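Batch job 17 of 40 flagged for manual review because the log was empty.
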Amino acid sequence: MEIPKGFKMRIDPEDDYTHPVEEAKNFNESMYINLFDFSKKMGGWFRIGNRPNEGYAEMSCCVYLPDASVGFMYGRPNIPDNKELNAGGMRFAIIEPFKRLKLSYNGKVCLLKNPLEMADPKQAFRNNPIVDCQVNVDYTMTSPVYGGELIHEDGRPIELNAQESFARAHYEQHVGGSGFIKVGGREWAVEGFGLRDHSWGPRYWQNIFMYRWLPMSFDQDFAIMISVIETAKGQFRRSGVVQQGNEYHMIQDTTIESDWDENWYQTGMRVWAKTDQRDYEIEGKVLSLIPLRNLRKSPEGDVLQTRIAEGMTEYKCDGKIGYGMSEYLDQIIDGKPVGTDVA
């Protein structure tokens, strides 16, 4: 990540906890984590996004099962404040900042044999069984922290336009974890690798035109995160990291060439990435995908629709096989995602 002149990146252990609520109505504090068990070819991702000034949290639980079915639940539970990330049956507990955390979920999921049905959430929840789900995973961080809060060199925070912002601060870490997942009457012990992120500040999902986010892990010492973002103003940011042992190498440039199905969901991708040490070539194959969406009305009353295609993906790089996500966010304009021609 290139830091502009006159600014610096700030990150402290206290940032692993929640932050003071800002005045912006759309202030959001979000924590996300995933995990994939390579031997079982299953996994999941879990997120809480507190919106205390709006009185609710966004809670998502998504579990990819070995038979390619997906258990998914989304909710907007009421919250009184931003003191913890604990809503809708899900809880993130920081055991030791930047080193250990525990994820738990005790609730329901909609069990979809065909996850693409979630393109119409009302029909999907009506036509598929709602079953009990329990998740408990203990995580240990396997990498340094990447990211933080960009501030002025004298320590002053940056003033943001809340209507155009996506986050004030954002950081990520690759992780390892073990625990169990229960869906309906089935239970799996899981152990594997993944990635987590944490962000805070004003956010609307419509303030990014499109992004491609590819977090992947191959083993405890080799993991990659690729990010391609196009802002609402048409600016591109291509970045990411390669983990080698206990060190991150910054990605200086990257391209993603995607394959699509008839609904413009990604089915695979070929990725090139360059660090200061070498070039990487990565192939991805989507094993299971669920399409999600976020709707918001503009001040003029227009419905703004954001689509987020969440694909559990198998990756190949340097002769190794790994697993992770391909998360493709697009604004929908004239019925089509905007970023299908972008590499």
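Reviewer: the log was empty due to a logging misconfiguration, but the result itself is present. The mean pLDDT is 93. Unflagging and moving on to job 18.
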